[in-house]
């Protein structure tokens, strides 16, 4: 059986990362993730990410760079993560989420991230810290 890819976006804006709280399924509801979803057959990952972020958050976004690594989710599914820039729109929890939060590097671990998201979140937080003018 081939793996199904879940693409997720580390949406970064003004030095902060967007976290989204899942509203379903029951076993994941209340946990925080990088918004995204499953690739449709024949779809390129970047296209899937643009589509998912439009559907879930109502924004136009552009994938910038893949975070190295892929992480196994439930059997048969792997997570790939891209950094993402917002082109237009303010993210809203339209689908799959019931709350959104912008987290600066020092707030990044104030939410309960899904386990599989943690390595990618750590890498993005490291990059946000490096990009910040000061770490005070
Ligand atoms: N979107 C997303 N899903 C994640 C992350 N981490 C993680 O374990 N998952 C899991 C949760 C889900 O079981 C699966 C993705 O499913 P999804 O429900 O977001 O996908 P989708 O929007 O395409 O929805 P559908 O096909 O089920 O309707 O991957 C993450 O950071 N983002």
From TrEMBL:
Its cofactor is Mg(2+). Keywords: DNA damage, DNA repair, DNA replication, Hydrolase, Magnesium, Metal-binding, Mutator protein. PROSITE patterns: NUDIX, NUDIX_BOX. It is an enzyme of class 3 (hydrolase). Residues 2-127 form the Nudix hydrolase domain. The keyword DNA damage applies. SUPFAM superfamilies: Nudix. Its EC number is 3.6.1.55. It catalyses: 8-oxo-dGTP + H2O = 8-oxo-dGMP + diphosphate + H(+). Gene3D superfamilies: Nucleoside Triphosphate Pyrophosphohydrolase. The keyword Metal-binding applies. CDD domains: NUDIX_MutT_NudA_like (cd03425). Belongs to the Nudix hydrolase family. PANTHER family: 8-OXO-DGTP DIPHOSPHATASE (PTHR47707), NUDIX HYDROLASE FAMILY PROTEIN (PTHR47707:SF1). This is 8-oxo-dGTP diphosphatase. It comes from Streptomyces hebeiensis.
